[in-house]
């Protein structure tokens, strides 16, 4: 695609685009916003370098794409005074990091976020990349018979999975059912919508069948042909479409520090 106000450099033929010619610390002109929408529909995840944004800039950018989604399971990590902003941090004291399993953010919510905007200000000297995978491509690569089998099935997504099945005291964690194959509301394309990070089982099939099918799909979506890998630098931003992309945060930098903030964007009930 060609653009008038931005430049988008593709990371791979399948997914990912690095955007230049833009300043996210200031309000964006309408044409630039329109082109970002088009670039997102085309590339699924957009990357920005050298964007030293504050919380207000972060929230303003998210609001250009549909308002802010505040997930109940992120409450312990919300920035004081800015519940829209979640702290993403790992260091030498961390026992685990969020997002190591392949997942779509907060797919456990009734209306999962349309997208996520992650800003990282502190990066380890080496490592800490994030890998993204194209769920359109993953669906297209299925056999006709598998597509027919999956069409119409639903699966349960449970946020307690991320807490080892134990709900922290005082927290109410969401659990909802969504289609295994969803249709993207903007592009009209079908994509796989189950993920290792939240999906527990397929409904209305025997448990052994559910485990076998989910195991296959969890492995299938990780195929390198569907992926791009982003190497972070200080003050970089990744903005991805949760409806048609999954991602995995690679924790290969212990005991170094990796720190930033995330804002999520309102989405619709998967259909």
Automatic annotation (TrEMBL):
Keyword Disulfide bond (UniProt): no
GO cellular component: cytoplasm
Annotated GO biological process: sulfur compound metabolic process
Pfam families listed in its UniProt record: TauD
SUPFAM superfamilies on file: Clavaminate synthase-like
Ranges for domain TauD/TfdA-like: 8-262
Keyword Oxidoreductase set for record: yes
This protein's UniProt keywords: Dioxygenase, Iron, Metal-binding, Oxidoreductase
Any GO MF annotation of the entry: metal ion binding
Family: Belongs to the TfdA dioxygenase family.
Name of the protein this chain belongs to: Taurine dioxygenase
């Amino acid at each position: 695609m060609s653009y008038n106000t931005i430049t988008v450099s593709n990371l791979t033929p399948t997914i990912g685009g690095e955007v230049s010619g833009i300043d996210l610390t200031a309000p964006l002109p309408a044409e630039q916003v329109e082109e970002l929408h088009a670039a997102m529909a085309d590339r699924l995840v957009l990357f920005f370098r050298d964007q030293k944004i504050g919380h207000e800039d972060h929230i303003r950018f998210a609001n250009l794409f549909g308002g802010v989604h505040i997930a109940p399971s992120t409450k312990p990590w919300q920035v004081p005074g800015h519940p829209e902003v979640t702290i993403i941090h790992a260091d030498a004291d961390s026992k685990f990091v969020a997002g190591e399993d392949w997942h779509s953010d907060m797919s456990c919510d009734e209306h999962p976020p349309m997208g996520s905007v992650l800003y990282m200000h502190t990066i380890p000297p080496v490592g800490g990349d994030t890998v993204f995978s194209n769920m359109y491509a993953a669906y297209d690569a299925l056999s006709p018979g598998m597509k027919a089998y999956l069409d119409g099935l639903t699966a349960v997504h449970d946020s307690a999975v991320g807490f080892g099945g134990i709900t922290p005291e005082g927290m109410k964690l969401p659990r909802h059912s969504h289609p295994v194959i969803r249709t993207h509301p903007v592009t009209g394309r079908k994509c796989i919508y189950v993920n290792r990070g939240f999906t527990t089982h397929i409904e209305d099939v025997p448990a052994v069948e559910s485990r076998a099918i989910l195991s296959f799909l969890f492995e299938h979506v990780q195929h390198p042909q569907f992926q791009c890998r982003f190497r972070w630098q200080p003050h970089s931003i990744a903005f991805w479409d949760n409806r048609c992309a999954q991602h995995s945060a690679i924790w290969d930098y212990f005991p170094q520090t990796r720190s930033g903030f995330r804002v999520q964007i309102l989405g619709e009930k998967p259909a």
